[in-house]
Design goal:
By secondary structure, the protein is mostly beta strands. 11% of the residues lie in helices and 47% in strands. Strands 1, 2, 3, 4, 5, 6, 7 and 8 form an 8-stranded antiparallel beta sheet that branches.
């Protein structure tokens, strides 16, 4: 996937418990997509060239906030204290984490820990 995309992707050592099955895909010279599955829900990590939101999630969430993680401005989207989407950019690349776990999402601490491990 890295060869096809033309860049590498470092993923976090840990993902939320239960997300084990992994599918890796790439778009030539554009993006790498790693999707984890727990049998019911999906968690997708993407890295792509440019500065556009590559999450593919256009849901209107109740809560949108920006936090600093490793000197990166990360936009978090979700409902209540649960996060469904994290997007950020770092130089020439943009990143996203999308959790399709119904409306529940996952804890913001879990998302920010994952962001720390992605390059």
């Amino acid at each position: 996937a890295e060869k096809l995309a033309g860049f590498d992707l470092v993923i976090p050592e840990k993902v939320p418990e239960g997300f084990s099955d992994k599918n890796i895909s790439a778009i030539q010279d554009e993006m790498i997509d790693i999707t984890y599955d727990n049998g019911e829900d999906k968690l997708c990590i993407r890295k792509g060239k440019g500065a556009d939101d590559i999450s593919g999630d256009y849901t209107q969430y109740d809560e949108i906030s920006t936090v600093e993680v490793n000197n990166r401005s990360v936009t978090l989207k979700g409902s209540g204290d649960k996060i469904n989407v994290a997007v950020w950019e770092d130089g020439e690349f943009t990143y996203s984490i999308v959790v399709n776990s119904g409306e529940a999402g996952i804890d913001s601490n879990v998302i920010t820990d994952m962001v720390k491990g992605i390059e």
